[in-house]
Amino acid sequence: MNTNLQFNGQIPQQYQDVLTPFLFDGFSQDLISRIDFTNVSNVLELASGTGSVTKYLLEHLPMDAHLIVTDLEADMLDIARQKVYSPNLSYNVVDMTQIPYIDEQFDLIICQFGLMLVADKQKALSEMYRVLKKGGRLAFSVWGDIEANPVWDISGKVIANFLGANPMLQDPGPFSLADEGRALKLLENAGFGNSKVHRVSQLGSIETAVMAADGFIEGLPVFMAISKKDPALVQVIKQALAPQLSAALGDRPTLSPLQAWVFETTK
Predict the structure, then answer these.
(1) What's the rounded Cα separation, in Å, for the pair 4 and 169?
(2) What's the half-sphere exposure (Cβ side, CA atoms, 13 Å) at 172?
């Protein structure tokens, strides 16, 4: 496991409270709007985080369908459980490179902003292919170019001034599948055919630049790296980041263009 990508401790709550409405909820609604839920009875969500996609999934699932919601981090699932629950939903800690379910179990697999954080992306997609029924569908999203996501770009550059490298640009990392051609090739290698990719743009909005800085420093795994180097740096970097976000993206509210790739494919 890459310890630089662990979402645990105090990170999940900050991720949910600050980053989810700013960065993820709009993409969650878009992803769910693309899915045909006809004849869907068994659904697997991978890398669910704190439940942004999950809550919209439940609104569209057939009454008799069952949803298994999974994430690598138990602490992320603990937050999701507090706000998203249903008799036809179960939670489980799952590594998507070793999915603990039988072959051809699911009609639908959904994964938002998770695959790019996996070291062995090919293994993860091969596992998704294995547990999908023939004719089953996979829908997932990853971030597009970092330059098209300025709040990520600015934050990464400011953090790099203190840590010596931009953590957003590592592989695995949030932008490691920004080249949609790479993801399409991985899908092909896993056995998926007729894959489609869509560029999706959103406008993220958050009340203040200070809140955005708090979220990016304390709501992502980089918090661990900063704290390990020097706990005092957490506040120092937040104070350096907030005015740069304000200058580039405004304040009260802070608005950032966001861009992702959404992939749809069938087994």
Answers:
(1) 12
(2) 19
Main-chain dihedrals φ then ψ at residue 146, nearest 5 degrees: -65, -30
Residue in the block written with tokens 């958050």: 206
Residue 1: predicted pLDDT: 35
b/e sequence 221-241, b meaning 16+ C-beta within 10 Å: bbbbbbeeeeeebbeebbebb
Rounded Cα–Cα distance for residues 242 and 186 (Å): 37
Q: What angle do CA 160, 201, 116 make, to 5 degrees?
A: 50
Amino acid (one-letter) located at 72 = L
Q: What percent of the chain has pLDDT over 70?
A: 99
Pairing mode, strands 254-266 and 42-46: unpaired
* Whole-number Cα distances in Å, 212 to 145, 155, 215, 231, 239: 20, 9, 5, 19, 11
d(CA 244, CA 59): 38
- What letters, b where the CB count within 10 A reaches 16 and e where it falls short, cover 34-43? ebeeeebebb
Q: Each residue of 194-214: pLDDT tens digit?
A: 999 999 999 999 999 999 999
Structure tokens at 147: 């330059």
∠ CA 22-91-206, nearest 5°, is 5
Mean pLDDT of all residues in 69-97:
96
What is the share, in percent, of the chain residues with pLDDT greater than 90?
96
User: Is a pLDDT exceeding 60 seen at residue 4?
Assistant: no
Question: Rounded to whole angstroms, how far apart are CA atoms 83 and 38?
Answer: 26
Helix H or strand E encompassing 79:
helix 74-83
- Residues with Cβ < 8 Å from 48, sequence gap 6 or more? 54, 69, 70, 71, 76, 77, 80
